[in-house]
Amino acid sequence: MASNNTDIETEINVAALEGGGLPMAEAGDDAFGSVARAMHAVLDPVCKYLCYAAAVVTLLMSIAMVVDLVSRLALGRPLSGMIELQTYMLVFMAFFSIAYTMLKNQHVSVDLITSLMSAQTNSILQSVFSIWGAFIFGAMSWLTASRSMEALRREEISDIIQMPFWIIYAVAAIGTALLAFTLIGLLFTHLSGLYQFYKGRSAFWAWFAAILVVAGVGATSGLLLKGIAPDLSSPTIGLLYTAFLMVILLLGFPVGFSMAFVGLTGLFYLIGSNVAFNVTKINTYDSVAVYFFCVIPFFLLMGFLILHAGIGAKLYNAGIKVFGRLPGGLAVGTVAGCGGFAAICGDSVASAATMGSVSIPEMKKYNYDDSLATGSVAAGGTLGILIPPSIGFVVYGIITEQSIGKMFMAGIVPGIILTLGFAFAAYLQCVINPKLGPKSEKFTAREVAESIFNIWPVGALFAAVIGGIYSGILTPTEAGGVGASGALLIAMFSKGFTRKKLFAALLEATTTSAMIFTILIGVGLLGYFITLTDLPLSFANFLNTLDVSRYVIFVLILLLYLVLGMVMNIIPMMMLTLPILFPTVVSLGFDPIWFGVIMVIMMEMGQITPPVGINVFVIHGVAKKYNVSMATIYRGIIPFVIVEVVVIFFLTLFPDIVLWLPNSMDTLAPLD
């Protein structure tokens, strides 16, 4: 989020809404607290400066990508070894930032239930989860370190730049070790809080013993279950551990950690601990060291640079200058500004918070109805995950092995339709009831032209990124590098952009990337486990035996995404569900590119649908000083939800609207 929204973030705890999890308990003066403070004193500077280094590497990656691109296009000579170099820089960036991401409490978790629990109950749960997290990442560190030693003995080096592999494996081992130690420090912090609450009485020691027992049983559950019930079928094990995953997710265990833990302990049952650890040994590094994954930090950096450069205000200003004289013109301009900002930022929560902080005061100035003002921002903010370049489409392409470039193209026309639909909904409400949104003052043609001219760099950057992908000149990975470097140039020439804001953007892009890569590591282990259980195949076969239309099943899947979208961040939601549901969708004959777009729109709807809706909480925080109630915001959202339902129905009836642009593209690489 933009730095000028720090007060908003504090009020609504955006970090928790985005999955940041629970705040750390405070350590007391007991032995547990002393250990926690000592560990924190050592780990905090080490993790912080490594993350700073990783943030700089993120920027260097995008610049190196542009240099390579210029050399290839202008001189016909791509730089030798660039793919290897980018991959190793990605490994450095990802593993050297995951521990600091934990220290800053930014790994994604679901706090719907835990937010209702007492601090003591949460400390007990988090103590168990800290042990599990330390176990899984400690094991990853040990196994990756052994892989590093093996590479050193064998003198393994990369093909082109001759990089010794032991160094890269060691980076992964150090990063996961720091994360494990961070979790141990967090464990002592929570134990100290419990010790202070129970004042060291026998109740504390009873809970302490229970924590150790539950943590030990959970970590060895696969082996224990194998001893008790050795003949359970693979699908049954899959269902049991899927249920276990759902429980610990709802209890607040970070999503990536939960996936890795369930995947490893489930593999203990299916293939034994030795083979399971061998799978983990390979998965930890290989889940991150993929060149195409560079697109993740590139587009995130592009979005955060634009965010901190204050581009949102310029886009909103252009929107109100163009549409201000229409009935509800400021709301229409807000939707248009959100659409433009989403096209560059790609994050729904950031779009809602940024555009809300700019537009709501302006609409209040012109006596706009609170429900229309907040509803238009909340709905417009959801466009961030649909209009490319969208990090949601990047993740979908990675998980389902679909072309990211085609996913971007597929989102353009639905994004335009949905933006126009939201704008029309705002306009129509004010035509019916002009008091909802009075007209603004009249602007001269010169003022309108100047406002449009002020946003030309953003339009040029969007055209370069999307046009380069569509034409086939750029791969999405290269386009991400161009986008990040272009956003840096725009930011540097933006008024008020400082070195502090530059580092804020770099750190946010890096820690968000680290969160995603941690989930990818977890997805790797969980995916291997799910594959061995034959659960996706069994689920698909079961659905195929049902005597119902495939569209009935399709609607049920969409309703699932609607519900999950109310309580969960979109990225972990996709990573959690797609390994199981995607094979079913394909077996039912639905186009995977088309389904990705429909699924994203459905998750968008979940972000603004009662009783939760993450964007609603964000807007409530922005509008808090105007005494706008949650009920008012939900009332204002209803017309926009209706538009989304109509658009989904329309795109389902006419799928070629989604597929027209991607089908007209040149052939792209499967993951690129």
Provide a concise account of the structure shown:
This protein is mainly alpha-helical. It is 76% helix and 0% strand.
Topology, element by element:
Layout: H1 6-12, H2 14-17, H3 31-75, H4 82-95, H5 98-103, H6 119-154, H7 165-198, H8 202-219, H9 221-228, H10 234-250, H11 255-286, H12 295-308, H13 311-323, H14 329-345, H15 348-365, H16 370-381, H17 391-400, H18 404-432, H19 445-453, H20 456-471, H21 476-492, H22 499-533, H23 535-545, H24 550-567, H25 570-587, H26 592-606, H27 614-622, H28 630-653, H29 656-663
Structural account:
The protein has 29 helices and no strands. With 672 residues, it is mainly α. Helix 4 packs parallel to helix 7 (165-198) and helix 17 (391-400) crosses helix 26 (592-606).
Given as residue ranges, the uncertain stretches (5+ residues, pLDDT < 50) are: 1-24, 667-672
Class by SSE composition: mainly alpha
Described by the principal axes of the CA atoms, the overall outline is globular
Query: Into which percentage range does the β-strand content fall?
Result: under 5%
In whole angstroms, how far apart are the ends?
28 Å
